[in-house]
């Protein structure tokens, strides 16, 4: 049986592949926005204004091709993990990043 961490890694990869339709393909901006809204609803404002979204994806899109490739997607998730870790590292309670 796979460990929790192995399951989490499999979920990260399979989620990207689900939205990209084929492994290795980058996500167009519309698919990436859909992924954010459906898969990270507590981390994404419910009404992500177009100007805010373009600013966000502009910072995320390292190679400026107007798409999100797997490396850029993983960078976003890594930043979210760091944020979660920093937010809860001094907390006496067990952290739950979904809060």
UniProtKB/TrEMBL annotation:
Pfam families in alphabetical order: S_100
Q: Which CDD domains match?
A: S-100
Enumerate the InterPro entries for this protein.
EF-hand-dom_pair (IPR011992), S-100_dom (IPR034325), S100/CaBP7/8-like_CS (IPR001751), S100_Ca-bd_sub (IPR013787)
User: Does the keyword field hold Calcium?
Assistant: yes
S100/CaBP-9k-type calcium binding subdomain domain ranges (all copies): 5-45
Q: Which domain of life is it from?
A: Eukaryota
For this UniProt record, give its keywords in alphabetical order, as a comma-separated list. Calcium, Metal-binding, Repeat
Query: What name goes with this protein?
Result: S100/CaBP-9k-type calcium binding subdomain domain-containing protein
* Species whose genome carries this gene: Rangifer tarandus platyrhynchus (Svalbard reindeer)
């Amino acid at each position: 049986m796979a460990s929790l961490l192995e399951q989490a890694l499999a979920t990260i990869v399979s989620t990207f592949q689900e939205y990209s339709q084929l492994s290795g393909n980058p996500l167009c901006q519309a698919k990436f926005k859909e992924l954010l809204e459906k898969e990270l609803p507590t981390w994404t404002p419910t009404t992500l204004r177009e100007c805010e979204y373009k600013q966000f994806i502009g910072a995320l899109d390292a190679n400026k091709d107007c798409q999100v490739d797997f490396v850029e997607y993983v960078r976003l998730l890594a930043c979210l993990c760091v944020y979660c870790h920093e937010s809860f590292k001094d907390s006496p309670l067990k952290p739950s990043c979904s809060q």
